[in-house]
Design a protein that fits this description.
2 copies of one chain form a homodimer.
Chain A lengths: L4 H4 L3 H10 L1 E5 L4 E3 L7 E15 L5 E8 L5 H9 L6 E14 H10 L1 H27 L2 H10 L9 H8 L3 H13 L3 E4 L2 E4 L2
Antiparallel strand pairs in A: 1-5, 2-5, 3-4, 3-5, 6-7
Helix pairs in contact in A: 7-8
The structure holds a DNA duplex (30 and 30 nucleotides).
Chain lengths: ~200, ~200
DNA sequence: GTGCCAGTGTGACTTTATCACTGAACTGAG
DNA sequence: CTCAGTTCAGTGATAAAGTCACACTGGCAC
């Protein structure tokens, strides 16, 4: 079902209009929502599921910048939509998701006619900037073993992920993750197996 | 003089209105435009000069996130303005600057009534997200010696800066900067003196 | 001058990144 | 099932970067 809180805020008539011209996309896990360099043809509103946004540097290394979940707005798309530049990052569907595509014309109309819609967009932008600022600090100054433990503790055991994927989450090298995990296993905090991490206690 | 391209785009009548309720601030070097935790009472438009935005992590380390110059918009303020949260970063005036303060009410009105104003705001947001994404990649993956040289080569010799300040620019430790600079001096690329770096050639 | 202090230099050590390689675990074809 | 190919994980060696501790020094205030 098409349900997103930013659409709820619209006046009844505008909402009706909107619901007609919006198409809902079903996104299976692994699907690429957009790639680096691609152009943007609409603003995706996340209805359900989960999508990660990551970027690959010139060095070839990648890092996950943030995630989008139900009721999020793909803020990154707005910039591409307005300036016509291509995406700098890529978005990969993690959990079975649904997203509503708002075409450029409708976006302009909603921005023009609804203060609540504008507020939603601005808030979303603000949160995203905040996320990225925190990430910069994290990457620049925090210790990798702390960040790894924190990341693990935010999940529910067992965690299905390869060391390489975990390295991309943290923006480091696979070997570093392997060594730190091995250290945690020695301390009895985790149990390791291929593509899987079990948290202990 | 109050001149900012986003104001130029306004329809004549709105522009007249705007110019009346906007107050211009003179900002001497060293002045703090806003501090972390402070609340925001308007959107600053940069008319001239230069301001750096930096953030201090829990660790106490700081890093420069980006700079604002003439004709820029302090995008970071919009989020604070709309959500009411405090700033996460601080803004420090570097060169003698002027900024126009757009109060909340006027901002809302401009967003409501001018598509060009909205476009300007969105573009500014997009650029800022882009900047931060590039910074994340830079901090996570690039070598410090390269980043240092690049930073130096973007300035005009002599550069008046302490090693500590340069460390904040790059998000690293003072000792690292000192050692890398010493290495550059040994290679004959720079000449070092207290609070000053001369580029050679 | 003398004392003070921000700024700088450097050794010792830890943490993280990179490179190179090994072996183990899974997959699919036959 | 067996074998070959591929992905994933472990690890040593080495280099780069971060941390801690402390010595030195240039310039300003008195």
């Amino acid at each position: 079902m098409l349900h997103h809180s930013i659409l709820e805020t619209l006046p009844r008539e505008l909402q009706k209009d909107a619901l007609e011209s919006i198409q809902v996309m079903r996104l299976p896990p692994g699907k690429i929502l957009f790639r680096a360099g691609e152009h943007c043809h609409g603003l995706p509103l996340m209805l359900s599921g989960g999508v990660k946004v990551q970027m690959t540097g010139i060095s070839g290394n990648s890092i996950v910048l943030y995630r989008m979940g139900a009721d999020d707005i793909c803020t990154l798309s707005i910039g591409c939509l307005m300036t016509g530049y291509g995406y700098r990052a890529e978005a990969i569907v993690e959990d079975e998701s649904e997203a509503a595509m708002i075409p450029r014309g409708l976006f302009d109309r909603l921005m023009d006619q609804s203060a609540a819609f504008r507020l939603g967009i601005m808030e979303s932008y603000g949160r995203r900037l905040d996320d990225l600022m925190l990430l910069v600090e994290e990457v620049a100054f925090r210790r990798m073993d702390e960040r790894l433990e924190e990341w693990l503790n935010l999940r529910r055991s067992p965690i299905h992920i390869t060391h390489q994927e975990l390295a991309v989450e943290l923006g480091t090298a696979r070997e570093v993750v392997s060594r730190l995990l091995k250290e945690l296993e020695r301390k009895g905090r985790v149990r390791l197996s291929r593509g899987r991490i079990d948290l202990i206690e």
